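PROTEIN DESIGN WORKSHEET
SECTION A - STRUCTURE
LENGTH: 381
TOKENS:
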């Protein structure tokens, strides 16, 4: 089983619900709705009024080939569990009897399963699945920087589930709250450039695929120290496609019955909103940088401010909206990449140490939790 490493953060989880325990739980899902900074778990269905199937056994809906480790988080309409493929532990028959570290080959297969308790939630889950499958079919799909779908079981009369690759780090919002809001002068500008380059590239990719995310905020962005496309810095992972729109569905589904379908006429508006929220995320990060400004940095910040101002005043043309990220990358990708390349090793080390810190609970399930789950399974057998 392939998995991407985590999607979530402490004290919350993100699959989007509320009351989450861990970033991973956030599994890819921190819904933005009313409070974009609040990490949640499993309820990406803003304002769903359908009652929860409280009598159902959520844990029992986890695919049988997966061993539940623990609850990552819970929302009103869903629960998210850390799991591991049962066949991943078969080569280690004595794994539960020894206190040695759990093999990396096992831990790398930890995934998250979101169990959904209402039919409306299942509809949204089906939308997310169809869009992720479409994105993953592309040869250009950035697997390590976008939610990685593994499998699903969508039902209308009972509990549904989605299995998604886990991410081993915190959400950007969790990182900001823990380390940037109290004192941000330690954060190097090169790290903000890094977030711009990777997050911006992911958004450009999905837009090229005629998909819009529709829920971009710092709770739906994760920092994954377990994967480093740029050596020494965490991958920036865009998660939670539960609100996404697919503008190509009309050709494949002329009756417009797919939940992913959105009319082509709405595309510019959705792209504009994605760009606006991306700009808000970046501008918030930029405000924390104290390092002496360069001409390129000042121009970058001014570009973000200008776009946000014109967007809120409805002063953007359709061309302004569609070319925003392209223009931003044309002007600042080179300077951003060049400055990131010059980042010193100590600054990289500081970033990584903060990501592994317990304050953001970024590691997912511990060795002890994995071992306890295996032991409980053996005792039941």
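SECTION B - SEQUENCE
RESIDUE ASSIGNMENT:
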């Amino acid at each position: 089983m392939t998995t991407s490493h985590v999607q979530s953060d402490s004290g919350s989880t993100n699959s989007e619900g509320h009351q989450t325990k861990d970033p991973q739980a956030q599994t890819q899902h921190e819904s933005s709705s009313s409070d974009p900074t609040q990490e949640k778990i499993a309820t990406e269905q803003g304002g769903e009024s359908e009652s929860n199937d409280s009598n159902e056994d959520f844990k029992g809906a986890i695919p049988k080939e997966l061993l539940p480790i623990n609850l990552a988080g819970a929302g009103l309409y869903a629960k998210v569990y850390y799991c591991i493929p049962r066949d991943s532990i078969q080569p280690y028959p004595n794994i539960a009897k020894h206190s040695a570290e759990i093999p990396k080959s096992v831990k790398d297969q930890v995934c998250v399963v979101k169990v959904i308790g209402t039919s409306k939630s299942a509809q949204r889950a089906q939308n997310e699945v169809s869009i992720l499958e479409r994105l993953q079919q592309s040869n250009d799909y950035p697997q390590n920087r976008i939610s990685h779908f593994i499998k699903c079981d969508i039902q209308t009369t009972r509990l549904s589930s989605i299995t998604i690759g886990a991410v081993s780090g915190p959400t950007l919002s969790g990182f900001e709250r823990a380390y940037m809001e109290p004192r941000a002068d330690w954060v190097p500008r090169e790290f903000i450039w890094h977030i711009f380059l990777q997050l911006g590239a992911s958004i450009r990719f999905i837009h090229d695929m005629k998909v819009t995310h529709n829920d971009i905020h710092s709770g739906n962005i994760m920092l994954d120290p377990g994967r480093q496309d740029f050596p020494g810095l965490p991958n920036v992972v865009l998660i939670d496609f539960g609100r996404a729109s697919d503008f190509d569905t009309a050709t494949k589904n002329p009756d417009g019955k797919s939940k992913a379908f959105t009319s082509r006429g709405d595309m510019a508006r959705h792209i504009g909103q994605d760009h606006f929220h991306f700009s808000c995320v970046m501008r918030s990060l930029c405000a924390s940088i104290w390092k002496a400004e360069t001409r390129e940095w000042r121009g970058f910040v001014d570009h973000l401010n200008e776009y946000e101002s014109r967007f809120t005043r409805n002063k953007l043309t359709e061309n302004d909206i569609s070319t925003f990220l392209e223009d931003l990358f044309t002007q600042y990708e080179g300077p951003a990449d060049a400055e990131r390349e010059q980042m010193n090793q100590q600054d990289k080390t500081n970033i990584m140490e903060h990501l592994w810190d317990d304050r953001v609970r970024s590691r997912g399930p511990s060795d002890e939790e994995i071992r306890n789950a295996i032991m409980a399974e053996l005792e039941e057998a």
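SECTION C - NOTES
Residues 172-355 form a domain with the Transferase(Phosphotransferase); domain 1 fold (CATH 1.10.510.10).
The chain has two domains: 18-169+364-374, 172-355.
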